[in-house]
Amino acid sequence: MTVVTTRPVSVTLDSETRSKIERLSKVHRRTAHWLMREAIHEYIDREEKREAFRQDGIKAWNEYQTTGLHVTHPEAEDWLAKLEANQDADLPECHHSIFTGFYRPSPLFLQNLPSNFWIFASPLIPGQALCWLT
């Protein structure tokens, strides 16, 4: 059996915010305490998801830095378009390219590619990075 203990916490609010909470508590027929507790829970849930998303992006970037494996932006867009159209679609196959790191290629070195070609890590495909035009 898990015992949940709670402790009161004091929060100082300006009068305008306090008035808004009181007004909303009447509208929703809830106590001000309930509204504040719900707002805190929603904020924590949202921020935990945001941090997990950020960590996935860091992990993807580190994986790309280690392996060099990636899919291009057009490959990812084609895959996402198929999913959006409710078609079965396998993940695009990851591959290496001549680029490493995060940089704008030298026009002399890559004359056939646009100068706005960049490499980015993306949590769209965990553990992989995407290349695309900006």
What's the gist of this structure?
The chain is mainly alpha-helical and about 130 residues long. Helix content is about 45%, strand content about 10%. The relative contact order is 0.13.
Structural notes for this entry:
Helix content is 46%, strand content 10%. A hairpin with a 7-residue loop joins β2 and β3. It is built from three helices and three strands. It is mainly alpha-helical. It starts with 14 loop residues before the first helix and ends with a strand. The protein has helices at 15-28, 32-67, 73-84; strands at 70-72, 117-121, 129-133. A three-stranded mixed β-sheet has the order 1-3-2.
Unreliable residue runs:
99-111, 117-123, 125-134
- The succession of helices and strands, N to C, reads HHEHEE
Strand content: 5-15%
Classification by helices and strands: mainly alpha
Number of helices: 3
Question: In one word, what is the shape?
Answer: elongated
What's the pLDDT, averaged over the residues?
78
What does the radius of gyration come to?
24 Å
What is the helix content? 40-55%
Features:
134 residues, mainly alpha, three-stranded mixed sheet, 3 strands, 46% helix, 10% strand
Topology:
Blueprint: H1 15-28, H2 32-67, E1 70-72, H3 73-84, E2 117-121, E3 129-133
Parallel strand pairs: 1-3
Antiparallel strand pairs: 2-3
